[in-house]
Amino acid sequence: MVIFGKAGANPPGNHRCRALEYFWTGLLGAAFILASFISCSSGARKTERPQNVSLVGKWEGVDRTGKLGAFHFSGSGDVTIVIDGKPLGSPEVNGFGSLKFTIDYLKDPAPLDIIGIDQSGSERGRILMIVRFITNDKIKIRTYFNEERPENFDNESVDDTIILDRMPD
């Protein structure tokens, strides 16, 4: 810091100038730390993601028409979807093939794919979804029912989003 024209030119014995220099340096440092703290603790709301989340289990919710819908995710990657009381994806029920699922738990919202597998084991299509774990026992799922995966839950509607609760086994 230059006080009298050039660096190091403080008059001998002028401790007051050096004290002011330390004061301003300390004040600026404190202001920087305070500003950093405020910017981290305010502004965009962060949502805490529940720990150790898993889709495995039975989930139920009510769709936009007021009808019960359900997903049964197994630990082996199979999924059965129940719509209007009719199970889809369970080969022992309908004999048309099965449904599998994949999910990336490291992302939020987590990409979730429901994959149709025919009787020969070939993939026949995918439903691209996203899922957000609200709690360990409540999730929100969104899909456009086409080849486009939603990126987030902004502008969600009752036509493309459902909230599901985990049911006891």
Tell me what the structure shows.
It contains two helices and nine strands, in the order αββββαβββββ. The chain is an alpha+beta fold and 169 residues long. The chain folds into two domains: 1-46; 57-167, Beta Barrel (Lipocalin), CATH 2.40.128. Strand 1 and strand 2 form a beta hairpin. Residues 1-5 and 22-46 have low confidence and may be disordered.
SSE order and pairing:
Layout lengths: L14 H27 L15 E6 L5 E6 L5 E5 L2 E3 L2 H4 L3 E6 L6 E8 L5 E13 L2 E6 L17 E7 L2
Antiparallel strand pairs: 1-2, 1-9, 2-3, 3-4, 5-6, 6-7, 7-8, 8-9
Distance between the termini: 70 Å
State the strand order across the main sheet.
Answer: 4-3-2-1-9-8-7-6-5
Question: In DSSP terms, counting alpha (H) and pi (I) runs of 4 or more, how many helices?
Answer: 2
- Tell how many strands the DSSP assignment holds: 9
Stretches where pLDDT is under 50 for at least 5 consecutive residues are 1-5, 22-46
The helix/strand order is HEEEEHEEEEE
Q: What is the 3D shape?
A: globular
* Estimated share of beta-strand residues: 35-45%
Largest sheet, if any? Answer: 9 strands, antiparallel
Total number of distinct structural domains: 2
**What is the SS-derived class?**
alpha+beta
* CATH architecture call of the largest domain: Beta Barrel
Quick one: CATH class of the largest domain?
A: Mainly Beta
